Amino acid sequence: MSHQGLNANPAKDSSTKLSLKDQTVARKAWKYDFLVFIGRFQPFHNGHLAVVERALALSQRLIICVGSSDAARSSRNPFTAEERIASIRDSLGAAERERVVFIQIQDHTYNDTAWIEQIQSSVASVVCDYGFGDSRVGLIGYSKDESSYYLNLFPQWASENVRQDVIYNSTDIRRDYFRSNPIISDHVMPEAVVDFLKDFLRDESYRALVAESEFIRKFRKQFEQLPYPPTFNTVDAVVIQSGHILMVRRGAMPGKGLWALPGGYLNVDETLIESMLRELREETRLKVPAPVLKGNIQAVQTFDDPHRSARGRILTQAYLIKLPDGPLPKVKGGDDAAHAAWLPLGSLKPREIFEDHYHIIQVMKSRLKEDRI
């Protein structure tokens, strides 16, 4: 997997031009050759900066793994990987920048093994480019951050847990920022990040994210007086035919304009499969008879990642329907779907797809049964 330094064409710094003897002497000044820092940095704040500074005091190089690099903009992941990398880079001094390498890490919401393997192989690639055969690699994080969870996932690396007296929370920063009267907490973020957030106020994406954040706040406020947070049940149809998948473009918030699987909330008077068939008809106008759809169901699976939706706790039941290869049936957007279309499976882009639907598709594709002649 590709990685990038802080320049457009990252190159090894002057330390790599030293003789082997000089490099060996230089290594003794550091506890590690590489430290790895994993996070989403939505946005990068002073807590993250403290970890970076500690890492650079302990290690010759720091590898920053920027998570959710392929996620569509949302209230939880509002900034692209490129924007986050730029804001982190601008928060560092020139000498520090020369010792930092960035890796973009894609989500694998329902496959932890694939996510871990992606980090392992990406870090190994950086070590191969910059390091030695016996490079000392460690993982660094701090107890408040999700990195403390990651520390247990890479037993081959030593770990450094950075203790902090002040706890910073990106969720709170985003909540204050994405509102009609934005608050930029400049005392909890580096100046470069504050400048980026001020500039982003003029971006069209900011206005869309504010509208979505307000929608979500109002949606969740409806249930504040309940004794327990509600859990919602939804259904999704994963309909595949001739190398294409049936998708709808969302016409309403959240995720307005993004591609999504046909689906929706379960009504109180219907079964899960009845709900799926109803939503499929309403949103795509697919005229394949219900018995044919039912007869081509190859798999059913529940997807329950706690963070899969900003609206709250939503479990979805996905149905994999593999229609016989042939001409694609006509479809048309209906209900709250602005558009419906058959998309080539090879053309799907995570940044254009709602919530975790891309990852649901990947899981369900793996359950396809081979056609037999």
TrEMBL record:
<keyword id="KW-0378">Hydrolase</keyword>
<dbReference type="InterPro" id="IPR015797">
    <property type="entry name" value="NUDIX_hydrolase-like_dom_sf"/>
</dbReference>
<dbReference type="Pfam" id="PF01467">
    <property type="entry name" value="CTP_transf_like"/>
</dbReference>
<dbReference type="Pfam" id="PF00293">
    <property type="entry name" value="NUDIX"/>
</dbReference>
<dbReference type="InterPro" id="IPR004821">
    <property type="entry name" value="Cyt_trans-like"/>
</dbReference>
<dbReference type="GO" id="GO:0016779">
    <property type="term" value="F:nucleotidyltransferase activity"/>
</dbReference>
<protein>
    <submittedName>
        <fullName>Bifunctional NMN adenylyltransferase/nudix hydrolase</fullName>
    </submittedName>
</protein>
<dbReference type="GO" id="GO:0016787">
    <property type="term" value="F:hydrolase activity"/>
</dbReference>
<keyword id="KW-0808">Transferase</keyword>
<dbReference type="InterPro" id="IPR000086">
    <property type="entry name" value="NUDIX_hydrolase_dom"/>
</dbReference>
<keyword id="KW-0548">Nucleotidyltransferase</keyword>
<dbReference type="InterPro" id="IPR014729">
    <property type="entry name" value="Rossmann-like_a/b/a_fold"/>
</dbReference>
<feature type="domain" description="Nudix hydrolase">
    <location>
        <begin position="230"/>
        <end position="365"/>
    </location>
</feature>
